[in-house]
Write a structure and sequence with these properties.
By secondary structure, this protein is of the alpha+beta class. The protein contains 5 helices and 5 strands. The strands form 2 sheets. The protein has a 3-stranded antiparallel β-sheet. Strands 1-2 form a two-stranded antiparallel ribbon. Strand 4 and strand 5 form a beta hairpin. The longest helix is centred in the C-terminal third of the chain and has 23 residues. It is globular, with a radius of gyration of 16 Å. The mean pLDDT is 94.
Length: 114
């Protein structure tokens, strides 16, 4: 496959593009938590205990920018912000599920407890 440019960056294959968008420690877990529900920032923060506020904010912004999540801000006091999956976000859940299941198999082979 020839190199291609997406958003001003050169990619060598489509896997590289997708892994950059959903890879890393936190993006897939954020998407996974939003697969069945809309969540507020504080709910995500509590449900992902090892993520810092700065990292959660950064990852949410990147996921929104890449079109995987929708951010809705309500004009109330105190401010209320909700996050949900877009259609693109719902599509990627199938891939995340496959990767998760493979990881669970690997853990089982190594006798790692969940």
């Amino acid at each position: 496959m020839p190199d291609f440019i997406y958003n001003g960056k050169v990619y060598y294959n489509p896997v590289q593009l997708v892994m950059e968008q959903i890879g890393g420690t936190w993006k897939a877990p954020i998407l996974w938590r939003l697969k069945d529900q809309t969540m507020r920032y504080g709910e995500l923060r509590k449900d992902i205990p090892h993520i810092s506020d700065k990292m959660l904010t950064t990852q949410l912004r990147e996921l929104e920018e890449d079109g995987y999540i929708h951010r809705e801000v309500f004009a109330v006091v105190p401010p209320k912000t909700e996050y949900s999956l877009t259609e693109q976000g719902k599509e990627i859940i199938e891939l995340i599920t496959t990767i998760r299941n493979y990881g669970l198999k690997m853990m089982e082979k190594q006798n790692i407890r969940k």
